[in-house]
Amino acid sequence: MDYFFALPVAVCEAAAAYGTLEKRRADQMKLLHIGGMSAEDSRELSRCQVVLAALLLGLAGYVLSVRFFLAVDDVISRVKMALALVCVTGAACNDFREKRIPNIFPLLMAVGGLGCLGAGFLTAQKGAVSYAFSSLTAAALVTGALTVAAFLTKNGIGVGDIKLLGALGLAGGVYAVGATLFFGMVFCSLTGVFLLAAKKKTAKDTIPFGPFILLGYMVSVFFYKI
Predict the structure, then answer these.
(1) What is the mean pLDDT of residues 11-30?
(2) Could you tell me which of 160, 19, 32, 164 has the C-alpha nearest to residue 104?
(3) Is the separation of the CB atoms in 209 and 161 below 8 Å?
(4) What are 114-122's contacts with CB under 8 Å, separation 24+?
């Protein structure tokens, strides 16, 4: 049954990727950017590239969901993982294309995370108090620390990234956001070094951090409870 229940997660992830990578479709979804900043620039991707990326991310979502579902029996934890995966995917794809993270994704993840915490108390979920403490602590710490880091580095990390990671803290707790941030920074650093060495970027150029948050979260899910 775990293999069957992973299918909706994969479909939703592929849809989130397609809807944010395909420019015409993304432009029609005005709700995504309500209250958000305007895009710095926008990548033009071919239909083939968009479809291929959506299929690959959907496949990755299926594999990760099966891996997580086999390791975790708790329904609420599964819902939180699926919600976070879909929201982070949509945010990462939009960040890749436009260098901005729509407010709708952190908002949905934060509201969903809080809803799951409430459901945990109402259904007497085992470890509900620990989950709540971990989630609230993670959200507060990562938001505070990254806000200070953004100030010290003169916006070296974007506000959208801070909101996304704060919402991930609410949905996933200390482990999820800590592992995601660690692996995301590792992947981002390696990519930055490669781009500098290949002279594709200069030290003054910026690269969107959203895709690396997605990579970090995928790694954290894959290695959860191994």
Answers:
(1) 85
(2) 32
(3) yes
(4) 114/170, 116/76, 116/79, 116/80, 116/83, 116/171, 117/170, 119/76, 120/76
Residue type, 162: I
As given in the structure block, the two tokens for residue 20 are 């944010």
Mean pLDDT value of segment 188-194 = 91
Q: What is the pLDDT of residue 34?
A: 67
Do 184 and 212 contact (CB within 8 A), yes or no?
yes
Instruction: Find the radius of gyration of the CA atoms of the chain.
Output: 17
In angstroms, rounded to a whole number, what is the distance separating the alpha carbons of residues 54 and 59? Answer: 9
Report the chain's mean pLDDT, rounded to a whole number: 90
Please list, in sequence order, all residues whose beta carbon lies within 8 angstroms of the beta carbon of residue 219, skipping any fewer than 6 positions away: 179, 180, 183
Question: Taking the domains of the chain in order of start, what are their residue ranges?
Answer: 2-222
SS3 state at 16: helix
Q: Which amino acid is at 163?
A: K
> Token match 């990326």: residue?
53
* pLDDT for residue 39 is more than 70: no
pLDDT of residue 65: 95
Q: Render 147-160 in DSSP notation, one character per residue.
A: HHHHHHTTSSS-HH
| Distance, CA of 136 to CA of 15 (rounded, Å) | 29
- Is residue 91 within 8 Å of 105, Cβ to Cβ? yes
Q: What is the pLDDT of residues 42-70, one digit of tens each?
A: 778 889 999 999 999 999 999 999 999 99
